[in-house]
Structures are given as structure tokens and as C-alpha cells.
Amino acid sequence: MSAVANPTRAAREDTPRSPQAGAPVVRLHDVHKSFGALKVLDGVSLDVGPGEVAAIIGQSGSGKSTALRCINALETIQQGTIHVCGHAIHDPQLDRRALRRDVGIVFQSYNLFPHLTAEQNIMLAPTCVKGMTKAQARELAREVLSHVGLAEKAEHYPEQLSGGQQQRVAIARSLAMRPKLMLFDEVTSALDPQLTGEVLKVMENLAREGMTMILVTHEMAFARKVASKVVYMHRGRVWETGTGAMLDDPQTPELRAFIGNGL
Amino acid sequence: MQSFGLAHVEFLAWAALWTVGLSAIAFVGGGLLGFAVALLRVSANPAARLAAIVYIQIVQGTPLLILLFLIYFGVAVIGFTGVPAILAAGAGLTIYASGFLAEIWRGCIQSVPKTQWEAAECLALTRWQRMTRVILPQALRIATPPTVGFLVQIVKNTSLASVVGFVELAQAGKLINNSIFEPFTIFVTVAVFYFALCFPLSTWSRSLERTLNVSRR
To answer: How many CB atoms are located within 10 Å of the residue A18 CB?
Structure first.
């Protein structure tokens, strides 16, 4: 069984920091990654253009979370190239802090800072990294909190919030840095269906506003409805790529089996 | 022969002040040095980490008594004669405390989940900002009980400073006993003094734990 080739696009150097219309925000080319003897990514290639919402789906262990973490340089790759918002991730000289100003990530386990209130969680990076004053950062925090529907929870500590609320604060915390790209790593996997719904709604709004997003998810309905590109990963490879409609008409027996199991 | 009286208790009280002073020197000095060593111990630089490990192992592997002898008599050998006992005892206890506090605090820093580092890193914070704004405030809560517990150890270990001729609580008790020979009465009194110093520390530790727990997840 051969992997479906990634969408062909005229090969070109994409170094500019602000991508021109159509130039990919994220480009992975033939990325290989192993943990010891375990091969996790086996030649992954993927393009995500500005304003696109890419949903990566696949079984546990298919490499989808690792692929996402590589995009944010949380993992180093052994082979291949990754370009993200003009940053060459594979370059050992990569300026990680510059990259992280452009890319936001939200984790499955929220990872809010427990000693800070929701508002302080959000204010931390804008004051430390962007040099905002406390007052400016507070105003920004209120703004992004109301964006995720939690304006009234500003003074609450994470432990006083539900899982869904914590995850929305985590999304707001990333948004406060005005990223060009948002990564979501199974952000609803720890939530019950009702709380999942409120987080997905926030993500859907973001997508509608034109945010470029890559999400690793098990929410097939959400991928079908919101994603402009669905990427099925299997055994460390991009096995099948398409629009949401791909899920109704899988080309490979592996995706067919995966969707069958999911129902 | 004179028997145990108020004058002796007063003498012990003065000596107890020296015990407090020596403990304070050891704790402040050991705390500053220990904090620096703890930061080196978790630094990204392997050479710095190794240096911290070697320092901690040597200090923890040396009896405090030997450390005190080394400083008091050792510096005389290399030319500095007449080091005051308080300086030698203070330096010895500082080094001793730094070795243990560094290791206690290293454990506390590392017990903050790795995902907290990651989240802070992904917000573009510098390593120093991650440490001071995210990790240390959380580590502080974890560190309070063992740190105060160790402070109690220091208070008691200052009694070893008597070997370099420093008159603190234990040494004062010995001096009184040499003159009136009522060991039981004298050393029970000395023990009561030590307890009176250490008990408030333990109580303080518990109350700190409660205060710091208020905004804990």
C-alpha cells in the first residue's frame, strides 16, 4: 500500500516572514523522527496554507502528536525540513523564542500555571515577552477571556475552573500572543462531551475568523465540519489527505477501518 | 559548691542567643549558596550541573565535625591564623547547609511537572523567566516543609561548633557542668532551650504550609 503523495505545489524557497497569499504557513518535507529504535515519523510531508484548518487524525501511535510537536520545535527531527511562518525548524540555529512568538499551542492537559489566576496566566507572556505594561496586559487578558466566553472568570485560579473552562483559558492565553498559527494537541481528549462542545465552539469561531490552525483530534464530526484539510496518519506517514468529505469516501482500507472503528 | 541557679539559666540564655545567631548565619549563608548551587544543578549547561553534583556530594559526604575542624585548623595551616571561632563555625555551617539545601531545592524544582516548563517555553518566555515566574513560585510551596525541617536540624547541629571553641548553648551547658557537676539538671535545661527554639519553627512551617496551600490546585 503506498502512501498518498502530498499535494503537489511548485517547489520554492519559502523564507519570507510574512507569507504571501497562498504560500504555506507550515511546510513539512520528508520529516523523519525516531525515539531510539522506534520510528515515529517516517517521511511526513504536509503543507498548510494561511487561514487553513488542518485536522490530523489517526490511531494512537500513528505519530500525529509527534508531528505537531515537531512543528513547534518541542521535538527535534533527524531528517527532512520544516518551515513554519518563515522559521526553519530543522536548522540547529533556530531562534526558538522568535518561533514561539508566532506559534501558539494548546495541550491536552491544559497546563495552566496553578499559582496564577486566569487573568495572570494570560498576562504573563505579554508582559514578559512583549514588554506590555500590567494595565495593557490586563486589558488584553479581559479581551481574550471574553473572546472565549470567560470574562467573569478572570480572578479565578485554575483549580476553581472546570476542565472545559481551563482549556478555554489556555486557548485565550495562546491567543493573547497574537500568533499566526495555532496548534491544538488533542485538546478535548480529557473532557466529557458537554465540556468538549464548549471548547470546540471556541475553536470553530477561531477558524471562522481566519486563524491558521493545525489540530490533532479524535473528533471526527468536528474535523469533517470545520477542517479545510483532513490528514490521516498511519504508521508515521501521511496515509491519505483530503477535505472533510474524504471521511465519507475513504480511499485506503486503513482509513476505512479507522473510521469504521470510530463509529 | 554552688548549686544550679538563676545565674546559670541566665548564662544559658545568653549562650542560646549565640545558637540563634549561628543558626541565622548558617541559614542565610547556606540558603544563598545553596540556592545558587541548586540553580547550577538544574542548569542547561552539563559542566555547571557536574560541578554542582560534585560540590553536593563532597559536602554531604563530609561530617560537619570534620568540616568545622578543616576550616578552623585548616585555614591556619595555609596562613590565616587567629580566625575567630564565630567565623569558622559560621563558614562551616554555611557550607554544610548549602550542600543539603541545594539538594532539597533541586528536588522541589524538579518535582514541578515538566509540562509546566513546556507551556512556559511555548509562550516564548526566556529560561530565566520560566524559572522565576513559573517554576520557582510552584517549587516554593513544595519546598517549605522540608526547608524548615532542615532549619531545625541546623539549630541542633550548631552544638558541634563547640569543638572550635565557640560557646553556644551546648558548650555553655558543658562549662556549667564542669564547675557544679549537676549533669541531669543542666542538660535537661539545655534540652528545654533547644526545644523552645525548634518547636516554634515546626509550628511556623505548618502555618506556612496552610497559607501557601490557599491558591494551590
So the answer is: 9
